[in-house]
Every structure is written in C-alpha cells, then in structure tokens.
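1st attempt posting a full record on here, be nice pls
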Amino acid sequence: MIKSLPIIYAIGAAQAFILAIALWNKKVNILSNRILSVWLLLLCFDLTVKAIFLSNENKVFNFSYFLIQFFPFLYASSFYIYVRTLTSGQSLHVKDLIHFLAFLVFFIVNIPALFGLFNAQPLGLRYYNSILYASSISYVTAGLVVIFRYRKNLLLQKVDIAKINLNWLMIMGYSQIVIWLIALSQWLLPVKGYNEWTIYIAVSVWILLMGYLSHSQQTIDPISHIKTRKTVIDTKKFDNVKDKIEWLVSHKNIHLKPNLTIGQLAKETGYPEYLISQYINRIHGMNFYDFINQLRIEHAKYLLHSNTKQTILDVAYACGYNSKSTFNSAFKKYTELTPSQFKQDHNS
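the predicted structure (as tokens):
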C-alpha cells in the first residue's frame, strides 16, 4: 500500500491544481470560489510534498515536509470562511486572520526549527493534536450551522427557492466531517496499518468529489438575518399588519408576484420585515415561504376550478411560479393532489 501512496497523492495533487485554476476563473460566487481555490492549492502543495517525501525521503524536502505539518490548521477554517462568504456575501477583513491563529502560532514559534537555527527543536507538538482536532471539528460544525441558518433564512424571506439547491454544499460539509473523524480516530485509536497516511487517501477522494460538485454549483444570493429593533413580540400592531396584507392580496395580488421576498412585502405594507415575520409566525404558525405559497395555491385552485381552458403551465405562471415542476411540487404539498388530478376531480 505504501508503494502506491505516492501515486494516489500525485493524482490528488493534480486534481486539486486543475480544480483550483477552474474555480479561480469561475464567474459565479467569485470571492468564495477563490477562497476554495486557494484552499485547494494548499492541498495540492501538501499532497505533492508527501508524494515526493514518500518516494524519496531526502533531506532536501525536510523543510517543506515540516512546514506542511501545520497546514491542517488551515483547512477547516478555510471551509468555514468559504461557507460564510458564500451565504452572506461578506468580504474578507483583517480580523479574519483570527480564524488562522493556530496555524500562525505554530508557524511562528517553529521558525527557528524550520530554518535550522540554533539547533532549535520543534515547539508545541505536545499540544498539536488536541488543538488541531478541537479547532477543526469546531470550524466544520460552525460551517454546517451557517448552512442550516441560510436554509432557514431562505424560508423566512423568499418564496421562489426551487433553484437554490444547497445539496452540493451540504455534501461538501458532511464529507469534511467524515475526513476529520477519520483523522481523529487515527489519533485516538492507533491501529497498525491505519496510519497517518491513510487520511490523505480520503482527501484525494474528496478533491475528486469537489471536482464533480463544482459543476453543479449555482449562484448563491447572499441573505442576511432579518434586522429587529425589538426583542419582544409587537402584537399590538398585528391587526394593522393583517389588514394591510389582506388588502395587498385582494387588491394588488402581491402574493402572485414572481420572486417575491419578505423585503418587498415589508416595503409595500410600510412595516419592518421583523414585524411581518413575527405576524406570519405567531398568527399563522408558519414561515414566509409557506404563507405565500398557500395563498398562491388557493388562487391556483380557483383558476383550475373556474377556467378549464387554461393549461397547468398557464395557471403556474399566473400564480407566480417560474416553472411547471415547481408549481406541481408546491400544489401537491398543500393539497396532496397534483394540479391535473385536482382539475380532473373538480371539473368532471
């Protein structure tokens, strides 16, 4: 197995390099993809050094091999930064260096050892594993939390989310968890043949997976949390909000507006987003996504029942949906029937 490892690492390094170049030039999610590109270039260098070192343990490569021992401190925090910039649209700041503090500390205190100064010995290695795994698993978990919050905010603020598929991002996150759990198990349960080199086989497979997933990557619209000025529920204004929304629905058909957001509804009502969200949640017991979709489906049922000449696609567009498949899914979710079945049952 050891003899084949350099080949596996070399293949992984080549994949990482090609994918890094492709992501750097990708025209969607530009900042986050460039962060992912730099991350992959670090992995490319890491795997290349390991492949060379395993093929020929020459002292020429000792500096690079020693240096890459600190690279794992960069990987999980890079995942978190990648997810954060992707979902929030936030730019990078100097303060983001704190996410790479562990790497910087280990690198700086070991500069004498790296350059062979004063016969210095490596420092801090006694605490290396405990700090690495604690920080890395924390950062991957934090990245997944950001993804879950983003998905929740989508339902709170948007109606038309069918095109926003985050499965590829979730797979990236879960695969990171798997890799770090493998690494953690190697540290806690050392088994002969299950050594430190094995983890990089998983990393090479992960890079291959990233190559596939990058093709299905979509443009992600950043979403921020709904800003609230009050911590208490402002129930005194709920009647006013209710009257205004009902007027907009009955007189302006605002619920049928394609790509409607809670921000647009708030602007039309004259009330802040947090109050609209509180009203929908407390009075109707649902989020913005379900609230608007139910109103749309009620209108669709009326059209399907009253106008037999309209096609299903005509009704979908009339109710604010951008595709027949999205309309069919929403209709079945709230009625347990497809539009065709409903139309047949009520017009036969």
